[in-house]
Every structure is written in structure tokens, then in C-alpha cells.
């Protein structure tokens, strides 16, 4: 399994775990990032800064690979 596939699988598992605990989160790893937020400013800040980083490095910050 290539790194991008592993990263996306990891993000999916984190999302499921966060749902179980009803917690907002933002996670980034080599090849993927994932967010679920319900108003937590710290999570929003982390994602907003990562969006800037993605744009600077020519990544699409709005890519939806979960479909």
C-alpha cells in the first residue's frame, strides 16, 4: 500500500475515533489531512494555517478524497 493510501486510511480511522468520542479534530500526515469541527477555534486555526501552507506548496486545500 502506498503512503497516500495509508495516510487516507489513517485519516478515516481518526475521523471514526473522533466521532466515537464526539470531539473536533484536525490531523495532517504525509499525503492526507482530515478535519471534523463543530466550532473549536483551535481546530479552525490549525486548519486555516494548513490551508495557507497547502496553497503555498501548490496543493488543493479543498480536495475531497473521501468520496
Quick synopsis:
This protein has 67 residues and is of the alpha+beta class. Helices cover 52% and strands 15% of the residues. It has helices at 3-21, 41-56, and strands at 25-29, 32-36.
Description:
With 67 residues, the protein is of the alpha+beta class. The chain contains two helices and two strands; from the N terminus they run H-E-E-H. The chain has a two-stranded antiparallel sheet with strand order 1-2. It starts with a helix and ends in an 11-residue tail after the last helix.
Present the secondary structure layout.
Blueprint: H1 3-21, E1 25-29, E2 32-36, H2 41-56
Antiparallel strand pairs: 1-2
What attributes characterize this protein structure?
67 residues; alpha+beta; 2 helices; 2 strands; flat
Please count the helical segments: 2
From the spread of the alpha carbons, the general shape counts as flat
Given as residue ranges, the uncertain stretches (5+ residues, pLDDT < 50) are none
The SS-based structural class is alpha+beta
Helix % is 40-55%
- Biggest sheet, in brief? 2 strands, antiparallel
Average pLDDT: 93
Kindly provide the radius of gyration, computed on alpha-carbon positions and rounded to a whole number of angstroms: 12 Å
Strand element count: 2
Give the ordered list of helices and strands: HEEH
* Strand order of the biggest β-sheet: 1-2
* Percent of sequence in beta strands: 5-15%
Whole-Å distance between the termini?
A: 19 Å
Amino acid at each position: 500500500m502506498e503512503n497516500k493510501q495509508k495516510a487516507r486510511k489513517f485519516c478515516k480511522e481518526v475521523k471514526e475515533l473522533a466521532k466515537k468520542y464526539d470531539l473536533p479534530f484536525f490531523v495532517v500526515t504525509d499525503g492526507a489531512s482530515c478535519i471534523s469541527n463543530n466550532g473549536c477555534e483551535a481546530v479552525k486555526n490549525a486548519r486555516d494555517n494548513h490551508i495557507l501552507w497547502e496553497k503555498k506548496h501548490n496543493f488543493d486545500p479543498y480536495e475531497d478524497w473521501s468520496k
